[in-house]
Write a structure and sequence with these properties.
6-stranded parallel β-sheet, Rossmann fold, 498 residues
Amino acid sequence: MNQTVVLYPSALVGHVGPMTKLAGAFLKHGYDVTVVLVGYGTTATDRTAIEGIVASNPSISFHVLRPPPAPPATSSDSKHPLLVLLDLLRRCNEPLGAFLGSIPRQRLHSVVIDMFCVDAIDVVAAAGVPVYTFFASCASCLSALTQFPALVAGRQTGLKDLGDTPLDLLGVPPMPASHFTEVMLEHPEGEVCKAITEIWRRNTETMGVLVNTFEQLESRAVRSLRDPGRNMPAVYCVGPLLAGAGNDKGKDGVDECLAWLDAQPDGSVVFLCFGSMGVLSAKQLKEMAVGLERSGHRFLWCVRVPAAAAGHVDEHSEQEQEPELDAVLPEGFLERTKNKGMVVKSWAPQVEVLRHRATGAFVTHCGWNSVLESVAAGVPMLCWPLYAEQKMNKVWMTAGDGMGVALELEGYRDGFVGAEEVEAKVRLVMTTEGEEGVVQLRARLRGLRDEAEAALADGGSSRVDFLRFLLDVKNLEVGGRGAAHPVNNLQILNAEAP
């Protein structure tokens, strides 16, 4: 009977998706996998997305925790969403413990939690099961964020007061203080900042961290994380964990998008997509359209209509109706660009688009899944970060002493990118010769594309790291919890079977 790995993401759909990709790595090595869900998301959109993830992964078992109800809220309660999420996860500790107790101990291989589920560490430890962290973002972010508790210790003001002052952090290029996530800029003694500080402190208390990256992409950050002076647990690079091509087959718009790309010349299309939550203002969409049109390049643009524009009500149906695209774009834009561009609402088959021979560049919000997909396809990027850790990712992506895989769209710090900037940067990144920096960028991406594939192949760096992780867990079983044992390559190669 196979051993079972339990994966425990938080209630956010952006965390459930990457966990299911990690599940695939365990399945390939002969383990059974159960993903523990904290309900089916906190919003209707999340529920729909998570239900889709469950339906499309029949090889994975899913178990839904039923937490006790929260105390009745008073009219004065207005908790920050992060605190609401952490409270929900704490209430799930008891049902999580009961679920782990229902599985025979000899069948439990390990529990892998995501970064928000740190209160589960004690529950898993009490069950006598090895507990690890899965970090779905990059090693550079992990390096910076784990230094955050020390950075704010003893401060009398929040990091917001530092503005764009560059911070010299271990393992990464200098980063403006303002590029930390919003909650990390608040006063260190504030409830939300204290909560996120505790999260980053406790994330280093598991037995190791599985990171969705590959060493060749972030060698500087990985070396720093593994430096004994950092006092980090074991770090395993196990990526890039990506959705496979063809996963979007049957979804509306797939055939139309790909058929349009089939008709375009090689490397001639700039793809613009800002993720499942990336909504730009109507004013910004119009400005962006002007820049695209002036650039003269072919484009495939995924547009999410702003709520303010989408919020009109049909008098007969009494339902909110999404307006047509020409209602949020410049007058005549779609007609004028119909021979050079394609605009789709909300969604495009991103993996297939990035891997298509016609795609020459990617304008992205810098979400880590999107970055990895573009790197694995060898496509250079233009950075337009919007929220969460995306500004941090932008720093690592564009720095010559970082990843060096992208160029920056100026104006994102002020929340508005002008048409002139869009036009200039699209023209620059689509240049195939003459611009030395862009030529080098494209050459680096071609190399990283090959290295991403090699990292997951037999003998590749990520494959070896994952096998090392499996062997470390096996050694815990042999030597007792917390025992350390030297490993060699022969042991790693023999560690595949559960």
